[in-house]
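Researcher: Go.
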Amino acid sequence: MQDTPTKATPGRAAAWGGLLSLIAFVLILALTIAMSLPSNVLASRDGSLLRKTSVEMIPQGWAFFTKPPSESEIVPFSVTNNSAPVSALAPPQAEFKNLLGLSRTQRAQGPELAGYVNEVTRWVDCMSSEPGICAQDLLDEGGTPQK
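Model: Structure:
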């Protein structure tokens, strides 16, 4: 009886190719994360060409997910019948009025606020650290709330 070599099935070759691709992706991701970390006691991250290239080509960081704290903040207020302005925001998420986090009302406010911001035609800078005071000052100066 003669032994015939067995051929690799296409499914097995594809599985090995997928596994190797996954391993390469994880290694590249780990390398870019390691290169983007600041220097510490264990590793000095000088300005080497590898680090500069890695940080420029595949930057890692939380800037994509977060907003800089120094950026201006837009706070909507509700005004009814010439009464004092009341914040129109509904945080925090975990309050009972937001169904302890199950309500989507608070999470939907960002896109809704962006829609309102795009409609505003005239902006006034607030010099006070309390936005409610600015809103009241604008009303006292004869400003009209935008609907």
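Model: The mean pLDDT is 79.
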